[in-house]
Design goal:
78% helix; mainly alpha
């Protein structure tokens, strides 16, 4: 949700909401996003009993999400950018389901 909070930072400041981007700034929030995604990916591989197609699919989706968050050209069109970010949530489910059920 941090990318969405970063998008809404000006409105959140106006309404005096205490979101993470308002408290620490948008650049630090973006770095926090990246750190959390890398940590998630590391934990995914560290705590997996075996590296299977589901783990690899979830790791690739995390890398795609990281790319989307930091891609400057996609950020120019807010609706397209956030549709893609929301799409990664759905894509994560589909990839895990397919890896689990089709293998």
């Amino acid at each position: 949700t941090l990318p969405f909070d970063i998008r809404d930072i000006y409105q959140d400041r106006l309404f005096q909401l205490k979101t993470i981007p308002v408290l620490i700034g948008s650049k630090k929030s973006s770095l926090l996003c990246q750190t959390l995604l890398v940590t998630y990916t590391l934990f995914l591989f560290i705590f997996a009993d075996t590296i299977n197609s589901e783990i690899v699919a979830l790791g690739l989706i995390a890398l795609l999400t990281n790319f989307l968050i930091f891609n400057r050209t996609l950020k120019k069109n807010d609706y397209y950018y956030f549709l893609l970010l929301d799409g990664t949530l759905l894509l994560q489910f589909i990839a895990a389901w397919m890896a689990n059920n089709l293998s």
